[in-house]
Amino acid sequence: MQYCKRCKITVRNPRRKCPLCQGNLEGTPEEESQMFPDLRRESSRMAMGFRIFSFVCIAACVAAVSVNWILGFRSFWSGYVLAGVGCMWILSAVAIVKRRNLFKNAVWEAVLLWAVFLFWDYITGWRGWSVDFGIPIVLLAVYVILWVIVFVTRAPVPHYMIYMVMVSVGSLVPLVLLLCGAVSVRMPSVLCVAGAVLMLSALAIFKGRALGEELRKKTHL
């Protein structure tokens, strides 16, 4: 147990300074008496882990360019390595930054994956797989992920309602591509649009009042 002479109080949670006067505490801290998790320690571990991950990414890029250079740059295959590592780093960085809000994290990752798929389809000669499979499959996966998070965390309606609506509205993209004839394989896009209709119908039927209130809050109407 730690003690502050100036305030004449005992401090159960291990600390370096008194929470009242910020003076030094006497005694030895007891780890088993810690009442609250040390969030600073958790954040520092996360930051250190991300720094290590960033260094590994840089090392992989340097190694790829070095090997490509040694072999004579007859084809710049290391550029694909750089692009792949860069995409992976961005996705990981956003996942860490948005980790405290799982719903927002899922939506952000979906948008980034759209961009990643379109980018890779473009730099590899544009075969259309990003719009045929990439975008609709990402949306279908996000539908499932959001509902799993809702059931596992038992989140209240206001916490997830707006993200469900955002993902459903995002399904207008495959619908527009379908109507414009830009999609060669229709099934993934049709399933995506059908999933959006079912999701919006479920929200309107079972959570209609909460949906209306949440939309009024977000749109300030």
**What letter string, H or E per element, gives the SSE order?**
EEHHHHHHHH
Structurally, how many domains make up the residues? 3
- Which range does the strand content fall in? under 5%
Mind summarizing the main beta sheet? Answer: 2 strands, antiparallel
Low-confidence stretches: none
Estimated helix fraction: 55-70%
- Large-scale geometry: flat
Over all CA atoms, what is the radius of gyration?
25 Å
How many alpha or pi helices? 8
Features:
70% helix, 8 helices, membrane, two-stranded antiparallel sheet, 221 residues, mainly alpha, 3 domains
Summed up, what is this model?
By secondary structure, the chain is mainly alpha-helical. The protein has helices spanning 39-70, 78-97, 102-123, 129-153, 157-170, 172-180, 187-206, 208-219, and strands at residues 2-4, 9-11. Helices cover 70% and strands 3% of the residues.
